[in-house]
Design a protein that fits this description.
MetI-like, MetI-like fold, 12 helices, single chain, 2 domains
Amino acid sequence: MIGFLAKRFATIPLVVLGVVTILFIIFKSVPGDEAAFVAGATATQAEIEAVRVQLGLDRPLLEQYAKHVSGLVVGDFGYSTTFRGNPLPHVLNRLPATLALASAAILLTIVVGIPAGVVAAAYRNRLPDYLISLSVVGLLAIPNFWLGMILIAWLSVGLGLLPSFGASGPASLVIPTIALAARLIALLARMTRGVVIEELRKDYVRTARAKGLSKRLALRRHVLRNVMIPTVTVIGLQAGYLLGGSVVIERLFAWPGIGDLLLTAVSVRDYTLVQAIVLIFVVSFLVINIAVEVIYRFVNPRLRYA
């Protein structure tokens, strides 16, 4: 296991370097004078040139790239016009809020999505199956930001039960979590239903039933274990979607995470801040994928010897 983890974590710097290189090329290809933008609209030509020299923008691109990469290694992401300095401490300060929202959404997805899929499969072509399938279609069709606005109008404005914005406590996490997790719940429930139905048709389930095991016990003892492998895959892949989807949800609910900060950075063309947030997203996604592979090995012991 240690060798496996060492190999996986060793790939992270290579992927991050590739992403940094792509972002550097994109940002340098954007029209406009970076020094003039940093100096401000009222800056004189002399002030613009001073900023150009200070930030090293007068050097060849390869030299700028090398300086940029060496700075990233020691945690210097460059000059952010939003924070007037290195944006990394500010991004890290907001990261726990985004992780809390994404973790709550994943937990809600597991608690609701898997049981819903199993119940729909166990009662196939009966009323519970129809109701769950109808809910799945509805959740997939509704954009999460629109669902968020409906929940605000209903639970916050109409009933006054929950806060509609900010991070003032656990109650403020409820509506953003539901809005963010809704689509993933639908995907997981639909996938779980299909896998359970397929597993129920296999010989080992027929054998278990022929030995007198009830359908419920056969599901619990034999089917659910095999269902976990594709389920973990979907949850791991969609965790990246949750990080990306949190951008809109955080802005809608004024949630103080890095998704909201990313929209601010894009609106003011703060490329340094955009890059810092994108790299945080990339590293988070890579670590989540490694965690999924580790869970695979516990769910399916055969992978440990593959």
